[in-house]
Design brief:
alpha+beta, Glutaredoxin, 47% helix, 2 domains, binds FE2/S2 (inorganic) cluster, 173 residues
Amino acid sequence: MEAVAKGCQCQALRSQDPRYQKLADIIGKYAGEAGALIPVLHEAQEVFGYLPHDVQVLVAEGLDVPLSEIDGVITFYSLFTSEPQGKYKVGVCLGTACYVKGAADVLEELKKQLHVDINKTTADGLFTLEVTRCVGACGLAPVVSIGDDVYGRLVPGDIPAILDKYLQAEKNG
Ligand code: FES
C-alpha cells in the first residue's frame, strides 16, 4: 500500500493556484473599507466560479468579519453560491403557466437523468440543475433553459435527447 502523507495539503496546493493570489489581491483592495464584504464575495465568485468554504475562511480572516456573517450573506443573496457550478445551467421554470403545463414532471425527469437534486451539479461538472421563476416565455410552457438555449412545450420524454446534444458536443470538443 502506498504511504499517504498525513494532514491537509491545501496550504501547499494553494500556493500553486493563481486564483488564491487573485483572492489576496481582491481582499487587499477592499480591506478596511466599509461595506467591503459584498464586492469582495462578488469578485471572489468571479474568480472561483463559486464560494467554497476555504475561500469564505480567507475572506473572513482578510476582512476581519465572522464566518457566520459570510454564510448569512451567501444564503441571503441568490447571486452567491457555495456550490460548484456546472458548465451549463439547466433552469426549469416553475412559474404558474409552466407548472400547470407539467413543469414538475419535466423537473423530475431532469433529476433522474442527471442524478442530481435542485441546486446541485452533476459529477462531470457539466450541468447545474436549478428552478426559476417565470422567464417570460409562458406561451411555450413548460420551459427549460440550458445555458443560452431555451426549450419549450416539453414533455419528460424530450429530456434525454436534449441532454444528449450537450453530452455529444462535449465529446466532440
Ligand atoms: S411561467 Fe414559465 S415562462 Fe412564464
